[in-house]
Sequence to fold (254 residues):
Amino acid sequence: MRIVIFSVLIAFFTTNLLAATQCVAHRGYSSEYLENSLEALEAAAELGTHAIEFDIQHSADGIPFLMHDKTLRRTVLEKTKGCELDTNVSDLPFKMIRDYCLLKNMEKIPTLEEALVALKESGVTLFIEYKDEPTLVDVQTIQKFFSRSPGLVFIISFNRKYLDKFKYWRNIYPFLKNVKLLKLNRFGTRWKKKYDGVDSYLLTKRMIRRLHKKNKVSAVYTINREKKMKRYIKKNVQYLTTDKPQLCLDLVSQ
Fold:
């Protein structure tokens, strides 16, 4: 009888833990501030969002910095003298990016290290999306600030090769064993066995249940419509990425 009661209690608490959907601010508080800027990241943290997602690219000399696109055209001031707006950022030295290119909110383009410095005391979970190939500089930078709290770091990417590099580095940097690796998918839960979970554009309730049963992370991106948010919250998805973190927080608290 005690065993049955204990099993029921475990199931009850597990269900309630899974029901608490976490809101992930997409590229920071991007509906109100310029995406991938320190301003957007800090605003999301101040809002009290559960997690913050941002994108990483690398300069020609291997410096990791925050940028979604392959070029600077969309988010950088067009009349910044000396800034190459249409050249791939991977072909530009970081000194040029830093010295000549201003974001549209007049900030310097932030490095990965600056983003981690800005967020390390907030206690917020980080979803770091790799748009190009990570390097040991990335690992060492993350270790510098989150070696004691690696559970707050999620590495996400559409590219399996980038995630596999982090899996390999787990053999060299033990703290990475507690950093979650999520495969970004257009649809479904493919590759869930290989990584710690999936971050998909579309997940069914059945997929979410299967992920939780296998102790895998379930996450969806980028959900901005209230009706769709409510649907995923009802499905008990663990992480919901959105440009509207305030709306998500309000719905989760209801």
Q: What stands out?
A: The first helix runs from residue 2 to 19. The chain has one domain: 24-253.
